[in-house]
Amino acid sequence: MIFNLSKTRSVANVFIAELRSSAIQTDSMRFRRNLERLGEFFALEISKELEFIEMPVQTPLGIASCQQLAEQPVLATILRAGLPLHQGLLNVFDQADSAFVSAYRKNKKSGGFDVKLEHVSAPDLQDRTVIMADPMLATGLSMVRCCKELLSGQKIKALHVVSAIASTEGIAYLRANLPKARIWVGAVDDEMTSKAYIVPGLGDAGDLAFGVKI
pLDDT tens across 153-175, in order? Predict the structure, then answer.
C-alpha cells in the first residue's frame, strides 16, 4: 500500500510546499517544525490502520466507553535528518517506544555510494508494529539497509515507512526489497541527480534542519 499525501485535499500540502520553498526553508526552525507537522499528519493517517479496543473511562459524571489503541507502535528513525519527522509521530503516539539507527552515505571513487551503519538502539520489536521515518526516500538504499538491520532476527507485526518526499525509483526499490511495508509519503518526484538527490525535491533535509555538516 502506498499513501501519497499530495493526492489528497489536505492542509498538510501547505507544509510540503513550505518545505520545498528555497525562500522559506532558510528558517531552520520553521523547516524542522514543518517536518514535525507532517509527522503528526502521518501519525493520524497510520492510526486508522491500527487496532483499537473499547475501554471504560471515568468522567466526573459517569463512565464513558472510549476507543484506545490496543498496543503502542515503535517509532524508528534514521539519524540525524529523521529527528523532526520522528518528533511529529511521537507527538501523536506519545506513549510509543522509540528506535534509532545511525547511518551515513560513503561516496565511492568510482561513483555512487555505500550506506554505512554505525549504531542501532531499539527495544524488543517482536510482534510489534514499527513505523520507520526518514524525510527523503531517494534511491531507497539507506531505508532498506536500515530497516533490515533494525528488524534482523525479529518477526514484527507490520512495517510502515514514512517520508516527506520520495522518488519513483526509491519507492520501486523499497517495494522490491521490503514488499510488506506500507509506504506513506508527502509527495513523489520522478527525477534524481547523479548524486542521488531528488528533483525538484527540497535539498538536503539534514543540513536544512540542523546546519551544513563537514
Answer: 899 999 999 999 999 999 999 99
